[in-house]
Structure formats: structure tokens, C-alpha cells
Design a protein that fits this description.
alpha+beta, 5-stranded antiparallel sheet, 37% helix, globular
Length: 149
């Protein structure tokens, strides 16, 4: 994996709770998993419920938007997907990292996993220097799914 891409991925991983993590780590593909037709075991009480179709769709749309931003090296578009506004400096740093990495492709290896107001998308990123698979956290805040940070 080339050093610029590796450095960018490490920087994103370190900022896991921040915006930068998501920039190189998500891409959707396929449709959400089919709902299970089996009933939950009657001996276990569960406080969680299955994700709604609306949440599942919103998470998939967010994942696609993140992938598009990564592939296009568009830090401004990514900044609009975050839960908190990002500084111009943070977005400029991300843009420099993406520009140094060269062309990348990102794909979602499987549908995102939605758990209440949290979700995880497992992202596969490919560049001239190699590949990396990384789980990407997503969060629902004030009724909107976004990249935490």
C-alpha cells in the first residue's frame, strides 16, 4: 500500500470518533438483508427491536454518499454528511490526504448493520498501493443518520 494512502488510513483510524475516519472507509453495494422469517427464541427476552425499513434505507443512502465522496475526493461533500460541522482546516487536511492517495475505489462488502441509533458499514478501499477493509461507525442524531465526530 503506498505511504500516502497508508498514512491517510492511519490518520482516519486514529480519528475514529471524528469525521476523518469515515472518509476512506465506506462504500455501499447490494440491497439490505432480507428480513428474517423466523421468530426470535421465546426463552430470551430482548429489549432491542429490528431496525426499521426507514433507518435501513437511510443508512444505505448515507453509506453511498460517503463512498461517492471518497471516490470523487470531495471533502466538501463529505463534510455535509457529518453530525457536527467540520472546520475548513480539517476538510482541507482531508482533501490533501485524498489528493496524495491518488485514485481509490471503495465498496461496501455487505449491507450495513443497524443497531438502534448506531450502525456499522464495513468498507473495502482499493488504491494503487493496496487494499484495506475497515468497519465504519454511523450514528443517528436528531432523527438524521450521520458520520459521528
Amino acid at each position: 500500500m503506498n505511504r500516502a494512502l497508508a498514512a491517510g488510513l492511519v490518520l482516519l483510524g486514529v480519528a475514529g470518533a471524528g469525521v476523518v475516519l469515515g472518509l476512506l472507509l465506506v462504500a455501499p453495494s447490494g440491497s439490505p438483508p432480507a428480513p428474517s422469517t423466523s421468530a426470535p427464541p421465546p426463552t430470551r427476552a430482548s429489549t432491542s427491536t429490528a431496525p426499521s425499513a426507514v433507518d435501513t434505507a437511510a443508512v444505505n443512502v448515507l453509506a453511498r454518499a460517503i463512498v461517492d465522496a471518497i471516490t470523487a475526493h470531495d471533502s466538501g461533500a463529505f463534510g455535509k454528511l457529518t453530525c457536527r460541522p467540520q472546520s475548513a482546516e480539517a476538510l482541507a487536511g482531508l482533501q490533501r490526504t485524498w489528493d496524495a492517495a491518488g485514485p481509490v475505489t471503495a465498496t461496501l462488502r455487505e449491507p450495513p448493520e443497524v443497531r438502534g441509533e448506531s450502525a456499522t458499514a464495513k468498507v473495502h478501499v482499493e488504491a494503487a498501493g493496496g487494499t484495506k477493509d475497515t468497519p465504519f461507525p454511523l450514528h443517528k442524531e436528531n432523527g438524521r443518520w450521520c458520520v459521528p465526530g
